[in-house]
Amino acid sequence: MTAYFPPLRDMEFVLQELAGLEEISALPGFEEATPDLVASVLEEAGRIAEEVLAPINAAGDRQGAQLVDGAVRTAPGWRDAYRTVVDGTWTGLPFDPRFGGMGLPGLVNAAVAEMWQAANMAFTLCPMLTQGAVNAIDHCGSEAQKALFLPKLVTGEWTGTMNLTEAAAGSDLGAIRTKAAKSGDHYRISGQKIFITYGDHDLAENIIHLVLARTADAPPGVKGISLFIVPKFLVEADGSLGARNDVHCVSLEHKLGIHASPTAVMSFGDADGAVGYLVGEEHRGLEYMFVMMNHARLNVGIQGLGIAERAYQAALAYARDRIQGKPVGCAELSPIVDHPDVRRMLMTMKAEIEAMRALVYVAAAALDKAERHPDAAARERAKRYAELLNPVVKGWCTELGVEIASLAVQVHGGMGYIEETGACQHLRDSRITPIYEGTTGIQANDLVNRKILRDKGDTARGVLEEVSSLARDLAQRNDDAFRSIGAALAIAAEEARRSLDWVIAAQAEDPRLPAGAAVPLLRLFGTVLGGHQLARAAVAARRRLDGGDPQTAFLDAKLKIAWHYAESVLPQASGLAAAATRGARTVMTLAASQL
Phi/psi zone of residue 100: left (φ > 0), alpha (ψ -120 to 50 degrees), beta? Predict the structure, then answer.
């Protein structure tokens, strides 16, 4: 398998020019996130990605996690790598220093997550989910629960999981059957959960499970769900570990990819019932769990970005080395990177990855503003913007991650279909990302029903007006590339606006129509908003070049990548708009028996 090289220069460009790191660092509580400190953090995180996580990725895939005598054993190198995470308090990067965190912006955490997910997605799932557990307890738990559990979770000495899915309750969480019976100051949890990532492992001394369950008097459906903290080992008042709780891994799933990430079937309460502690109030569990789920959805979008970058790097390295035939226009044999179609694939991969990175970082910055901006109105605007972007980042970035990983196999040709090159693993690993933490269809329906219809499209229209405004500006410039970008962006934004209006009107006619249009609409928004960010990048690159920045080749590439995206990717907007507004009327025309 090829090496991974953290794209620090590209990342820093997006942080500074598009995500507004300087503005984020000025928010209350983030003053220590100076450019020098952030650069140092990213450099060290990149070193860990390159030297610690990437080298064990392929071996972990081959061996996988193993269930031995009722305990999960992680792949070779996993425990040493996890010790590196704990020693550096990396899990605590975005959390409150009073619990042992670094107190840095979520934007910086997103950049670190990209590198680690790219280097070793199966490994990075563990600290990713622990961060989600910290968020849930910090936002919804009692002060006593925070004091007891957060210090060890923030440092990574303990890890966290989310336990939602059951055999008969996948996306329909209202159907869960796990029970919670009141017993003094706690509850006894009984039931079984499936697909629990890092449900058991040998990396940390304790695992803190966040479990959805029903109390005895719970109403049916999602309104009857409560959230509980269920430790693997009970925790004494002084923070020391007590007896083993009644929770066990009974099997590991055999999966298409991420083999080294133990995906467990967890059984709670086989004996007396697992001790669980209620988080917040009864029957508000799904509301609380969404704190963790929304964190996970942003980070799964980052997984799509990371795996795409890793697959692209492998494809590019192969294309620069592989000689196969004489490319059109070349006088002699040269590597396949000079074949126009290979160049087309690589250019498209690079353009889409840069669009994804920009949208992810901008979304992370919006979350920081929504939490920390001193002005209430600015916080609300940022919150609505971040909420609009969340399903787009998760759905669009993961779908593109699979497509880009598949393109990487294609660039390798027949060798891409051979496991030894490593291209297969990236494709296999990527395939779960559009599924877990809510499928693309679920994200798309969230975009339509919760983010667009709730305010009749006002937030989305405001975002699209920003796109159109930039498009108008570019169209007036004395530069062919900028005019082309502006023209393509204007058409794409108008297609998105027209589709937005159609969805709102169609809801009144037949609620199945917006549901049928939702996925094409999500992909349309991702395509347009990604193009907007690349256009912004081109403007920033031109400004730097005109100012005498010596990175001429790097900045010139930003201009050409934006131009390629405008000419080769943005035209998809018209087809996606048609699929949304016209195709939605055909999806239910066949009876189920005719399929």
Answer: left
Mean pLDDT of 21-29: 96
Residue 413, token pair as written in the block: 């040709």
Phi, psi at residue 15, to the nearest 5°?
Answer: -55, -45
Query: Which backbone phi and psi does 514 adopt, to 5 degrees?
Result: -60, -35
pLDDT of 190-237, one tens digit each? 999 999 999 999 999 999 999 999 999 899 998 999 999 999 999 999
Catalytic residue ranges: 437
Burial of 593 (0-12, 13-18, 19+ CB in 10 A): exposed
* Structural domain containing residue 465: 441-587
For the stretch 519-547, pLDDT in tens is 999 999 999 999 999 999 999 999 999 99
**CB neighbours of 589 closer than 8 A, spacing ≥ 6?**
none
* 154-204: pLDDT as tens digits: 999 999 999 999 998 888 888 899 999 999 999 999 999 999 999 999 999
Q: How far apart are CA 586 and CA 580, in angstroms?
A: 10
Q: Would you state the pLDDT for residue 291?
A: 79
DSSP structural state of residue 420: G
Query: Of 127, 298, 134, 136, nearest to 227 (Cα)?
Result: 136
Query: What's the start-to-end Cα distance of the chain, in Å?
Result: 42
- Do 129 and 188 share a domain, yes or no? no
Question: What is the rounded CA–CA span in Å between residue 215 and residue 142?
Answer: 19
Percent of the chain's residues with pLDDT above 70: 100
Where is the domain boundary, 86, 121, 155? 155
Report the predicted TM-score, pTM, of the whole model to 2 decimal places.
0.97
Determine which helix (DSSP H) or strand (DSSP E) holds 183, and give its type and residue range. Answer: strand 179-183
Q: Are residues 25 and 89 in the same domain?
A: yes
β-pair type (206-215, 225-231): antiparallel
**Cα–Cα distance measured from residue 176 to residue 433, given in angstroms and rounded to the nearest whole number:** 23
For residue 197, what is the enclosing H or E element?
A: strand 186-197
Task: Collapse the DSSP code of 373 into the 3-class scheme (helix H, G, I; strand E, B; otherwise coil) and give the result.
Answer: coil
d(CA 71, CA 57): 22
Q: Give Rg (Cα) of the chain.
A: 24
Whether residue 579 sits in one domain with residue 552? yes
Three-class secondary structure of residue 134 per DSSP: helix
Whether residues 533 and 481 share a domain: the answer is yes
DSSP 432: T
Complete DSSP assignment for 331-363: SS--BGGGSHHHHHHHHHHHHHHHHHHHHHHHH
